[in-house]
Amino acid sequence: MAENKDLDIKVEYITRVEGHGDIVVNVKNGKVEKCEMHVVESPRLFEGMLRGRSVFEAQHITSRICGICSCGHSLASIEAAEDALGVTPSAQTIKLRKLLLDYEFLDSHILHVYLLAAPDILGVPSFVPLIKTHNAVVRRALRMKKACNDVCDILVGRHVHPISAIAGGFTKLPTPKAIDDQISMLEAMGEDMAETLKLAATLKFPDFHRETEYVALVSDDGEYPLLTGDIGSTDGKRFKKKDYRKATNEFVDPRSSAKFTKLSRESYFVGALARFNLNYDKLHPEAKKVAVALGFKPVCHNPYLNTVAQVIEIVHCYHHALGILRDLKKNGVDYSQEIVVGVNEKGAIPVRAGNGVGAVEVPRGILFHNYETDAKGIIKQANCIIPTNQNINNIEYDMTKLLPEIITKSKAEITLALEMLVRAYDPCISCSAHYLNVTFTD
Amino acid sequence: MTNVPITATKPKVAFFDFACCEGCQLQVANLGEALLDILGAIDVVEFREVMSEKWDKDYDVVIIEGSITDHHAEERIKKIRARSKVLIAYGACACIGGVNGMKNSFELDEIRQYVYGKDFKLFDSVKTRPIHQVVKVDYFVNGCPIYPPELVEVIKCALRGLPYTVPDNPVCVECKLNENVCMYDKGVSCLGPWTKGGCNSWCTSNGNICYGCRGEVKNPAKNAAAEVIGKYKLNADLIKNKFDMYNKCKEGDINGGK
Predict the structure, then answer these.
(1) Which residue of chain A has the CA closest to B71?
(2) What is the least distance, in Å, from the CA of B71 to any CA of chain A?
């Protein structure tokens, strides 16, 4: 039956992902003719709109590319702006940015694991029916989500579109009480964390494997690299952040007018599973313990297990954040570093013409921002390469390998398996909606 | 204003998003367990980001995020409006165009070509418009992102058929109550004097300037503004340029909506 099977699947607006995307599958006489993921989000033209704006406004604007990734976009934007300006952030600033990134990971991964991915595994269309059947689980998810949001509010004013984290440093530094509050709120999450791990141990994922290249930040120090380091891959590639174009190699494929990325092979994977595969040794000991307990080892080639890698990172970021907070409590905060910048109309930060790159791990993978500025700090060219954009090529290769393996199943089962695969990547299509950015004209 | 009839069944509510960052719907998720109280009073029938369920009948209340930036979106919002008793626009993108409006500062084909290259025509794009420039809006919840307590308040009003008055005092009023040092006194310019409050001076209380995300107050104190600009020797173009970050679509209101 499989040899001559015809199949047409068009999933319009994949649900439970951020942004709008379609899956299009076409099988004729058992042969896969089309297996694609389309981005159908309305273009918002961010790179175009940045031209003419001050580089000091870039964080505020690019944060609005995506609500869920707004802290990640802010940090990549800030790094690109500071690189262009020649500003070196202080050790304290870097510490606070790492804390912010931990919060971003916690918040985003919890949302994905509980509200977006778990319903598939529990066999329901959304978390709404779970309110009746798994009320305690839903309450825990919302409670944890809110706690992550609240600590972030204390640190940077707001989780969705952070306020005080800007190029140059922080406009408001946490008071001793604010540090204590964050510690006690995280500590209060301890029991829910333990319950989350119990839940994670019960989740079952499809058995599917495809070898691919994994790309993430790597470093020579002992820290699990999320903010600092170089770009590295499981095929042994390594580049400085500045050379991000050598790592991404954007190309146009006749299948689609979208731009794809590749490095050593036909496609590569970015995200929690890539970080886990590349940097397992550097995970917090508590996170490693959980990985061992779940029997989860690098290198793992099952994309569905990206969700498990996210669970491991939830544990890592939780303990890493507490470590930073306890260090701040012990050693104090230097409040003289608090800055007033606005759009730098008073020249608080010296400005020069430059070309700066930011490369930061965000929940869905490595994110690149690149700005070219003139002598007044006005943006002339802008480019952003988004994790989901880098993953779409890999998702399509996965779907193409998966489809023949499940072709004898019903159309509904095949559709669900494909949707679950796409969701496992936790794609953020709001972010990638402008992923056809042009290269610089130089 | 259309009243939502109080019936034995819970009101059918749907969330839809257009061109936006989806940050406002995240603010809804960030309500935490309080969200379950709201969910207890209503029947959420569609919410794509978190639900796979679809609904094919009329809606009592629809909550719309994002701006209208292509033809498909225009048709879609018109269809949604036709099936809805009450429409709430929430977030800067839906209420005033927000950052999407910066696109309108450029020649449309030029900016499309800059981002999408020679194949730019494959990606439909029209001038950015807030929702009220395309269909009738019953309630506005301003902000980028929205201030969650305000959304809860507006949903309550919408369910009871009561009017909601959008705060129309400048951000400075709340900023003063929060005892912040004025950004102008710190040597940087701020859009607080011209911008609608209701956000509890969220940004200035955290040491940043106001970027104007809630839109211009209806009756700005022009003389006082001129005095501020004069006193601090500010460049009026700088202020205008800043204002365009969120408020560029206001030109559409002045020109009759289109």
Answers:
(1) A42
(2) 10
Residue A15 to residue B52, Cβ atoms within 8 A: yes
Q: How many CB pairs under 8 A join A and B?
A: 203
Q: Please state the separation of Cα A440 from the chain's center in Å.
A: 25
Contact map slice: B 106-165 vs A, CB within 8 A: 106, 111-112, 114-117, 119, 122-123, 125, 144-145
Contact A291, A283 (CB under 8 A): yes
- pLDDT the model gives residue B123: 76
Please answer whether residues A432 and A388 qualify as being in contact, where contact means their C-beta atoms are separated by less than 8 angstroms: yes
Of A52, A145, A170, the CB nearest to B32: A145
Q: B160, B193, B226: which is the final residue of a domain?
A: B160
CA-wise closest residue to A347 among A339, A338, A355, A335 = A339
Averaged pLDDT of chain A: 90
Please, which residues have CB within 8 angstroms of residue B220's CB and are 6 or more apart in sequence? B170, B193, B194
What contacts B118, CB < 8 A, 6 or more positions away? none
Q: What angle do CA A73, A74, A77 make, to 5 degrees?
A: 80
How would residue A193 be classed by pLDDT, with cut points 50, 70 and 90? very high
- Euclidean distance between CA atoms A17 and A116, whole angstroms: 7
Query: In the predicted model, is pLDDT for residue B153 greater than 60?
Result: yes
Report ipTM for this prediction.
0.92
Residues of chain B with Cβ-Cβ distance to A43 below 8 Å are: 69-70, 112, 115-116, 123, 125
Of A17, A48, A437, the CB nearest to B111: A48
Q: E-assigned strands of A182-243?
A: 213-218, 230-233, 238-239
pLDDT in tens, A338-382: 999 988 888 889 999 999 999 999 999 999 999 999 999 999 999
Q: Which domain holds residue A10?
A: 2-39
For residue B211, give both structure tokens.
């970027």
Q: Do B53 and B73 share a structural domain?
A: yes
Contact B29 A115 (CB under 8 A): yes
Q: Are residues A319 and A348 in the same domain?
A: yes
Model pTM score: 0.93
pLDDT tens-digit series, residues A1-40: 455 778 787 776 666 666 667 788 888 887 888 888 877 6
Instruction: Transcribe B216-240 into DSSP letters.
Output: B-SS--HHHHHHHHHHTT--HHHHH
Q: How far is CA A291 from the centre of its chain?
A: 20
Nearest to A161 among B23, B48, B53 (CB): B23
> Minimal CA–CA distance to B65: which of B147, B130, B157?
B130
Residue A185, pLDDT above cutoff 70: yes
Instruction: With beta carbons under 8 A apart, name residues in chain A contacting B187.
Output: 340, 342, 346
Q: Is the dihedral of CA A6, A12, A14, A20 positive or negative?
A: positive
* Domain count within chain A: 2
The number of folded domains in chain B is 2
A439 falls within a domain: no
CA–CA min distance A171, chain B (Å): 5
> Where residue A349 sits, what CATH number does that domain have?
1.10.645.10
Residues composing chain B: 258
Give residue-wise pLDDT tens across range A40-80: 666 788 889 999 999 999 999 999 998 989 999 999 999 99
Q: DSSP states of A57-109 as a string?
A: GHHHHHHTT-STTHHHHHHHHHHHHHHHHT----HHHHHHHHHHHHHHHHHHH
Question: Do A10 and A149 belong to one domain?
Answer: no
